[in-house]
Amino acid sequence: MSKETFTFQTEVSRLLDIVASSLYSNREIFLRELISNASDACDKLRHQALTSPSLIEGDHDFKVALSVDKEAKTITVSDNGIGMNHDDLLATLGTIASSGTGAFIEQMSKDDKKDSGLIGQFGVGFYSAFMVCDKVEVTARKAGEQEGWLWVSDGKGEFSIEKGSRDERGTTVVLYLKKDAEEFLEPSRITHIVKMYSDHIGFPVTLAGQGDGEDGKEGKEETLNAASAIWTRSPQEVDAEQYKEFYHHTAHAFDEPWITLHNRIEGVVSYTNLLFIPSVRPFDLFDPDRKSHVKLFVNRVFITEQADGLLPPYLRFLRGVVDSEDLSLNISREMLQTDPKLNKIRNGLVKKVLGALKKKADNDAEAYAQFWDNFGIVLKEGLVDDYPMRDKLLELTRFKSTAETMTSLAGYVERMKEGQEAIYYITGEDEAQLASSPHLEGFKAKGIEVLLLIDPVDEFWMQHITDFDGKALKSITRGEANLDAIKTEDDDNAKDDKAEDAPQLDLLIAAIKLELGESVKDVRPSKRLTESPVCLIADDGDMDVNMERLLRRHGQMTNGMPRVLELNPSHAIVKKLAERAGDDAEDALLKDAAHLLLDQARIAEGEAPTDAAAFAKRLASVMERAL
Questions:
Q1: Quick one: pLDDT at residue 338?
Q2: What are the per-10-residue average pLDDT scores of the chain (627 residues)?
Q3: CATH no. of 230-367
Q4: CA distance 37 to 227
Q5: What is the pLDDT of residue 456?
Q6: Which part of the chain is CATH 3.30.230.80?
Q7: Which one of 50, 111, 223, 479 is separated from 309 by 20 to 30 angstroms, measured CA to CA?
Q8: Residue 424 vs residues 201, 330, 427, 470, 564: alpha-carbon distances, Å
């Protein structure tokens, strides 16, 4: 048969225009696609040979062979798979996935599809070759046939088919590289790409030696990939050392995996996961993009390491792989189409991971504390992001408190005092500063435990969750703290003392309100202070103190809301000031003291006085009078 020339299908012509510039974000993907297609061809023939063994007679060892020719500036990808004849070349390489693997899958039963391990669709991936080359030659010979065929195109609208020479079955693709793609002639570059994208192709991917053998002949072939997907094996067949080595490889890490999750799920959507929780924080854990680093495979072919929707951002510390034969891919194989199957996989993975963490938390509290120190701040993001899993995440959440170095909410509830109706907490940025906060004094006196929340995300999830196990979550820096329902042995004596101190306090409060004006929302006696003279709190319904501080720091708020100034009626300073207020409400010292008390409350919270110069002047004046 003489040489025939054909015009590409209209859709292919449009595709080729896109492929050359923007279909793939990285040009190196072309090699992944060609190796994937070669693997498809081998898988296809291996399946057909189950019923027609003669097709592979004399050549049972499937492989994908790569070679480069620096002088000719070519890359060759060859396989000994099913091959193609004239009609196959015309249909497969002239249209978009009209036959090839796509048609082959449609002809098989569901069980056969699982066994064959076919990957993707042939057509589109092949055209990615034109990103890096000016011309492509495909020489093919179909298994069971004697004739070979040659397909040639420059990707500019036409292709030709004629008889070609090939001694054995299979397909050979020769790429004539563009000048700006000669980096792909380097064996190290080829090796890196194969290990990155095709390490776990089920057949050996080899690279021919570069003339380093004896007498100037080519050296031995080097197998570049592992050729065995560890996650496809039964967990009973993989030992801890093998898991560790794979974790190091896939995560580019050097620590030991803290938890290994290896599961095969069969159902409406079938998939395998091999996931690792690191024992130390990855360096990019707090990257603002919150990207996943679990690699997605489709039938052992690497697709992407950042599949949106595969795992929620709050599990971004996970490393490993997820492999499914049931997912749909778009033409670039880099972005998953909107696919309900992906959501099913996501839900299954989240439940599996949270279940493993719950088991660890229940059985090994010390080890779980290590995990929480590393990743708790990230896991808590799920309390905001993932409403369906909120209850499970609350069970896993741990806190530092005034009574425990690490506690769960359930543990806190078990230790609540008789008469205590709420779970109390305080938010801030420094644990030591929170532990010495004046707001805690009354709670310490009553023996009431308070959670110390120091992560920025705490302020946000607290906006979404207001109770646990029927107990309200209440900030001790917002609203009144009425602890009268919680009795102690000293309550009767304290009540008598306060009764004696009360008469002149109202006059002091009125004088301070008049002097401070709009600087405070209110002034009132405190039931939370036992040692400090004053503290500032947010009123009921107002923004919590620490939340306001965070928003101001990030430019989301300029001026904070005025807060409530609480006075400790039993403190010596307050008592003396109350006496002076009874004698002379216009006392100049009383006016200075009002501002100094407000600034003292701010300083106790780690904030600066509103007016540093005025604060210094008033302090000097008061000291002068005292001396």
A1: 64
A2: 81 65 66 88 86 90 95 96 94 61 39 36 64 93 95 90 93 95 94 85 86 53 86 90 86 88 92 95 86 85 78 95 79 56 93 97 95 95 94 95 93 92 91 90 92 90 90 90 73 52 78 92 91 91 78 71 91 91 79 93 86 91 83
A3: 3.30.230.80
A4: 16
A5: 86
A6: 230-367
A7: 111
A8: 55, 51, 10, 14, 19
DSSP symbol at 153: E
Residue pair 120/333 in contact (Cβ under 8 Å)? The answer is: yes
Two tokens, residue 456? 């920025």
What does the block give as tokens for 29?
Answer: 């993907």
Q: For the structural domain made of 4-223, what CATH number should be given?
A: 3.30.565.10
Q: What is the DSSP string of 100-126?
A: HHHHHHHTS-HHHHHHHT--S-HHHHH
Return the number of other C-beta atoms located less than 10 Å from residue 464's C-beta.
11
Are 65 and 208 in contact by the 8 Å Cβ rule? The answer is yes
Please tell me the distance from the alpha carbon of residue 469 to that of residue 572, in angstroms, as a whole number: 41
Pairing of strands 222-223, 4-7: unpaired
Residues 454 and 431: beta-carbon distance below 8 Å: yes
Dihedral over alpha carbons 332, 335, 337, 341 (to 10 degrees)? 120
The confidence score (pLDDT) of residue 118 equals 30
Query: Can you tell me the distance from the alpha carbon of 178 to that of 154, in angstroms, rounded to the nearest whole number?
Result: 11
Are the beta carbons of 56 and 318 closer than 8 angstroms? no
User: What Cα–Cα distance (Å) separates residue 298 from each residue in 232, 275, 315, 320, 556?
Assistant: 12, 16, 21, 14, 44
In 110-218, beta strands by DSSP E: 133-141, 148-153, 158-164, 170-177, 205-207
Q: Cα–Cα distance between 557 and 135 in angstroms, integer?
A: 60
pLDDT of residue 91: 85
Written as one letter, the residue type at 244 is: K
Side-chain-facing half-sphere of 415: CA atoms under 13 Å? 17
Q: Which fold has domain 491-626?
A: Four Helix Bundle (Hemerythrin (Met), subunit A) (1.20.120)
pTM of the entire structure? 0.72
Q: Pull the structure tokens for residue 439.
A: 């707001």
Residue 123 has what pLDDT? 34
Q: Which element (helix H / strand E) includes 427?
A: strand 422-427
Q: Tell me the CATH number of domain 385-475, given options 3.30.70.3040, 1.20.1530.10, 3.40.50.11260, 3.20.20.80.
A: 3.40.50.11260
CA-based diameter of the chain, in Å?
A: 120
Length of the chain: 627
- 199 DSSP 8-state letter: T
**Residues with Cβ within 8 Å of residue 623, at least 6 apart in sequence:** none
CA 439 to chain centre: 36
Task: Give me the sign of the Cα torsion angle 52, 58, 60, 64.
Answer: negative
Q: In angstroms, how far is CA 354 from the centroid of its own chain?
A: 14
604-620 pLDDT tens trace: 888 888 889 999 999 99
User: CA 545 to CA 536: how far, in whole Å?
Assistant: 9
- The set of residues, in sequence order, having a beta carbon less than 8 Å from that of 45 and lying 6+ positions away, is 55, 56, 62, 81, 82, 83, 143, 169
The reported pLDDT for the residue numbered 121 is 33
CA separation for the pair 431, 349 (Å, rounded): 34
